[in-house]
């Protein structure tokens, strides 16, 4: 089994779905954000504040390349594709799945979020703008699942159908 990479916007459910998918497939899951926070002993929020976004993108890119490439589910941060070479790399090394979610539902899921630095001001505008910029990148995934009207178990089932 090749690595499965979940990509998509903040709030699409990558971290949550990845954990459920790893249980189903009986393989480990690694979340790049959680990995970075553990490694750096800092929250994502603190890294953005103290070191800036480019430093975070460097960590993300480095860690991606260190992770296993077989028998694993890897859940990424929503901005990993902004370094386009990361997208190319994931597509070469595994199966890349885009978890899509519409803006209205993203807003609901992220309404109370305080941990994601890029959407703390003007949440709706920030989501709309970033999603528009990134959509062409996300769409290069091997396949897409629209999670807007699905619960976590249903998203996992859709993934299982696709990879069967
Ligand atoms: N399919 C879903 N339906 C409803 N809520 C969801 C769904 N997937 C995730 N969530 C919720 O949305 C929020 C963001 O999920 P998360 O897994 O952290 O997303 P991501 O890692 O893509 O940013 C969490 O509160 C989570 O419980
Ligand atoms: O889209 C982004 O630029 C980011 C997404 C976050 O991860 P999630 O997509 O898991 O929320 C986290 O990596 C950081 O706040 C930046
Ligand atoms: Mg996440």
UniProtKB/TrEMBL annotation:
Binding-site residues, substrate: 33, 57, 78, 134
Keywords noted in UniProt: Amino-acid biosynthesis, Aromatic amino acid biosynthesis, ATP-binding, Cytoplasm, Kinase, Magnesium, Metal-binding, Nucleotide-binding, Transferase
Localization, UniProt: Cytoplasm
Enzymatic class: transferase
Cofactor: Mg(2+)
CDD domains for this protein: SK
GO biological process: amino acid biosynthetic process; aromatic amino acid family biosynthetic process; chorismate biosynthetic process
InterPro entries tied to this protein: P-loop_NTPase, Shikimate/glucono_kinase, Shikimate_kinase/TSH1
Top-level taxonomic group: Bacteria
Catalytic activity: shikimate + ATP = 3-phosphoshikimate + ADP + H(+)
GO molecular function, one term: magnesium ion binding
Cofactor note: Binds 1 Mg(2+) ion per subunit.
Assigned GO CC terms: cytosol
UniProt key word Nucleotide-binding: yes
Binding site for Mg(2+): 15
Chief location of this protein within or outside the cell: cytoplasm
Metabolic or biological pathway, per its Swiss-Prot or TrEMBL entry: Metabolic intermediate biosynthesis; chorismate biosynthesis; chorismate from D-erythrose 4-phosphate and phosphoenolpyruvate: step 5/7
Chain positions recorded as ATP binding sites: 11-16, 116
SUBUNIT field: Monomer.
Family to which this protein belongs: Belongs to the shikimate kinase family.
Functional summary from the UniProt entry: Catalyzes the specific phosphorylation of the 3-hydroxyl group of shikimic acid using ATP as a cosubstrate.
Name by which UniProt lists this protein: Shikimate kinase
Organism listed in the record: Exobacillus caeni
Highest classification ranks of the organism: Bacteria, Bacillati, Bacillota, Bacilli, Bacillales
């Amino acid at each position: 089994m090749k690595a499965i990479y979940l990509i998509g916007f903040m709030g699409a459910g990558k971290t949550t779905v990845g954990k459920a998918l790893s249980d189903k497939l009986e393989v480990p899951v690694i979340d790049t954000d959680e990995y970075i926070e553990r490694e750096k002993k800092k929250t994502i929020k603190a890294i953005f504040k103290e070191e800036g976004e480019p430093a975070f993108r460097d960590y993300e890119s480095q860690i991606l390349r260190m992770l296993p490439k077989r028998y694993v589910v890897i859940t990424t941060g929503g901005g990993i594709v902004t370094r386009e070479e990361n997208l190319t790399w994931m597509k070469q090394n595994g199966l890349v799945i885009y978890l899509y979610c519409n803006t209205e539902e993203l807003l609901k899921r992220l309404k109370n979020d305080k941990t994601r630095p890029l959407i703390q001001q003007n949440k709706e505008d920030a989501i709309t703008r970033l999603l528009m910029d990134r959509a062409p990148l996300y769409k290069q995934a091997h396949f897409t699942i629209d999670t807007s009207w699905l619960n976590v178990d249903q998203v996992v089932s859709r993934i299982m159908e696709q990879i069967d």
